[in-house]
Structure formats: structure tokens, C-alpha cells
Amino acid sequence: MHSFPLLCSLLLCNGVTVSVQKKIQKLPDEEKASPAQIQTLQTLSRGWGDDIEWVQTYEEGLAQSKHSKKPLMVIHHLEECPYSQALRKAFAASPEIQQMAQEDFIMLNLVHSSSDDNVAPDGHYVPRILFVDPSMTVRADLTGKYGNRMYTYEPEDVSTCE
């Protein structure tokens, strides 16, 4: 009689072991995804520079700016906007801009509007780049060349920043 519970326990353990081994053997096949299932990993850079350390939020950027005494560069853009795409391409392709962004600024790029109206002093258009100094003041003296969209920049403007 004592051998029956022991036999049941052994059979149960053996069944669990076989089941686990089958799952382990099937796992690599199950992990293979079709091309339609594979998605590109979205990083905080969003194509603006993978070697740049990006903050996630405006609030985080302000805190890091204040702590590090570096200005915050806020890039507002939309993924589908052709003007944003052209500026992103020029920004990412410029070694000088990339180095400056890595060394001299706290960097944030937003694909949505911030709740802080200070980052949209003249409207919610894209692309626009604002500079916020460590005292948390938007620099109104650092603007682009357009009077009606003061903080907009174009790809050819990147060379003037280098």
C-alpha cells in the first residue's frame, strides 16, 4: 500500500518533467515572429541621435537642467510631418550638432504637446525648438528666422548652429 502513493508521485513528477522539456524544446520555434509581427524598438531618440542622452518628460528635463546647470533643448515634432522629418535628418546627420547636444544640453524631444504653456510661447506648431535655461526660463532671444513662428527651424538652419 505504501508503494501506490510513491508510484503516483513518481509518475506525476515524470509527467511534469516531460511537459517542461517539451515546452523548452518548443520555445525557440514559438519565439520566431513573422516580419509583420516584428516592430522596430522605439527609443527616446526617435531618430534625432541615438548617442544622445534623452530625458523622457519636460519636468524631468527641467530638473536635470537645474541640477546640471545646462540648458534644456526641447524639440517639438511629429513623426508624420515632412518638415519634422527633414529637420530630424539634418540634425542627426550633423556630427557637430550631435556632439553639442551630447555635451552642452539636456535633451528632450516631444511628439506631443506639453501641458506647460511656457513651451509654446507663440503657438503649438511643429517643428519647433526651444531653449530653457537652468533658471527655468524659455530663452526668447534664441529664435529662428521667422517672425510668425519664432522657434521653427529648417534643415538649412542646422549649419548656423554648428
Notable characteristics:
162 residues, 5 helices, globular, disordered N terminus, mainly alpha, three-stranded mixed β-sheet, 41% helix, 9% strand
Structural class: mainly alpha
User: Low-confidence stretches at least 5 residues in length (pLDDT < 50)?
Assistant: 3-24, 26-31, 33-41
Q: Give the strand order of the largest sheet, numbering strands 1, 2, ... along the chain.
A: 2-1-3
* Proportion in helices: 40-55%
Shape: globular
Q: Count the helices. How many?
A: 5
Report, as a whole number of angstroms, the end-to-end distance.
Answer: 87 Å
What is the number of E strands? 3
Question: How would you characterize the largest beta sheet?
Answer: 3 strands, mixed
Element order: H for helix, E for strand: HHEHHEEH
The average pLDDT score comes to 79
Rg: 26 Å
Percentage of β-strand residues: 5-15%
Word description of this protein:
With 162 residues, this protein is mainly alpha-helical. It is 41% helix and 9% strand. It contains five helices and three strands. Strands 2-1-3 form a three-stranded mixed sheet. It is globular and about 35 Å long.
State the gist of this model.
With about 160 residues, the protein is mostly helical.
Strand-helix topology:
Blueprint: H1 3-31, H2 58-68, E1 72-76, H3 82-93, H4 95-104, E2 106-110, E3 128-132, H5 158-161
Parallel strand pairs: 1-2
Antiparallel strand pairs: 1-3
